[in-house]
């Protein structure tokens, strides 16, 4: 029998090398998290209150926005604590739950982005069939399927992780409970579980990425056949935001998890993980809204409905037809 002790909590190291500027780091992360919640909350609110935005594309975008809020909310509080506390701890069950939700939310995000690519494929390549294929019932089924599959995908691995024994060391070299640093503390041989985790991550990344690539191959070929340059530009503009989010997400995932050994390069992985878990969720709502005419028009329609003395000052310089369209 191995000499093991019952671990009731883990200690999160965070970023010890940033200790001299921890106050600044705390402020930056707090502002970034606040912008993430406000930006994604804005998307949820504007889509729910504006009838013209209640389409399949914006329905999936709402799912993505809600997911980003949940994803960052299970990570950022502990990250902020590592900057203000000399010893940041997380209970054993909380750590296991955090691992499960991080990977589940990550899988759901990939699936939703894949469904969004399929939605753009139907809208651009089969526009006449779009209302028949992408009905409200189908959209609800697709979104629900993404959430169910995402949670079920990592369930077996999470159960196996809960059964692992841990030695005296309970210090996790990370600001969150990531599977690599946690596995390195196990007394048991965790190579099989590490392999299964790698296989799980690689498989869902490759499958979803392949489906997205195939969708855009058909989309681009269809756009190139559009005779007018205005039509090509308008069709491609509906995909640019999705492509930007996909590029950022898959680039970060490829660096963090698709490696021969997930236990390597913890320090560099932590830096990239911050970009993926804190910065990217904050950028996504801006990517989807800053050049989106429909969202801007919906915002001004909401301002018009509220009325009041600010209405004229906000809308005086805008074209009435654009605002009220």
Automatic annotation (TrEMBL):
Keyword Transmembrane helix: yes
Membrane topology reported for the UniProt record: Multi-pass membrane protein
Regions crossing the membrane: 20-49, 56-76, 96-118, 138-156, 198-224, 236-258, 270-290
Species for this entry: Eublepharis macularius
SUPFAM superfamilies linked: Family A G protein-coupled receptor-like
Organism superkingdom: Eukaryota
Presence of the UniProt keyword Transmembrane in the record: yes
Keywords: Cell membrane, G-protein coupled receptor, Membrane, Olfaction, Receptor, Sensory transduction, Transducer, Transmembrane, Transmembrane helix
All copies of domain G-protein coupled receptors family 1 profile, residue ranges: 39-288
Entry's localization field: Cell membrane
The protein's name: Olfactory receptor 6X1-like
Classification via PANTHER family: OLFACTORY RECEPTOR, OLFACTORY RECEPTOR 6X1
A GO CC annotation given for this chain: plasma membrane
InterPro entries in the record: GPCR_Rhodpsn, GPCR_Rhodpsn_7TM, Olfact_rcpt, Olfact_rcpt_6C-like
Main subcellular location: membrane
GO MF terms held by the record: G protein-coupled receptor activity; olfactory receptor activity
């Amino acid at each position: 029998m191995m000499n093991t002790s019952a671990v009731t909590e883990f200690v999160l190291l965070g970023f010890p090398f940033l200790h001299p500027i921890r106050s600044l780091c705390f402020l930056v992360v707090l502002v970034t998290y606040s912008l993430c919640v406000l930006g994604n909350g804005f998307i949820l609110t504007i889509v729910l209150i504006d009838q013209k935005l209640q389409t399949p594309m914006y329905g999936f975008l709402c799912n993505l926005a809600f997911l980003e809020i949940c994803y960052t909310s299970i990570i950022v509080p502990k990250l902020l604590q590592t900057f203000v506390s000399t010893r940041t701890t997380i209970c054993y069950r909380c750590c296991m739950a955090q691992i499960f939700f991080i990977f589940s939310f990550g899988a759901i995000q990939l699936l939703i982005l894949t469904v969004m690519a399929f939605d753009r494929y139907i809208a651009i390549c089969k526009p006449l069939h779009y209302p028949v294929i992408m009905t409200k019932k189908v959209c609800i089924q697709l979104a629900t399927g993404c959430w169910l599959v995402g949670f079920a995908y990592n369930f077996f691995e999470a159960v196996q992780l809960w059964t692992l024994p841990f030695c005296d060391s309970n210090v996790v070299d990370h600001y969150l409970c990531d599977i690599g640093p946690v596995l390195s503390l196990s007394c048991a041989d965790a190579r099989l579980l590490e392999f299964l985790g790698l296989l799980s991550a690689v498989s869902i990344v490759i499958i979803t990425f392949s489906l997205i690539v195939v969708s855009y191959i058909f989309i681009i070929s269809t756009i190139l056949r559009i005779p007018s340059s205005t039509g090509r530009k308008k069709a491609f503009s509906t995909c640019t935001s999705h492509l930007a989010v996909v590029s950022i997400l898959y680039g970060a995932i490829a660096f963090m998890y698709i490696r021969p050994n997930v236990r390597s390069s913890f320090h560099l992985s932590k830096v990239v993980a911050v970009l993926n878990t804190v910065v990217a969720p904050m950028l996504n709502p801006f990517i989807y809204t800053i050049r989106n005419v429909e969202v801007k028009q919906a915002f001004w329609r909401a301002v018009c409905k509220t009325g009041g003395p600010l209405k004229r000052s906000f809308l005086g310089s805008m074209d009435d037809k654009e605002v009220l369209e």
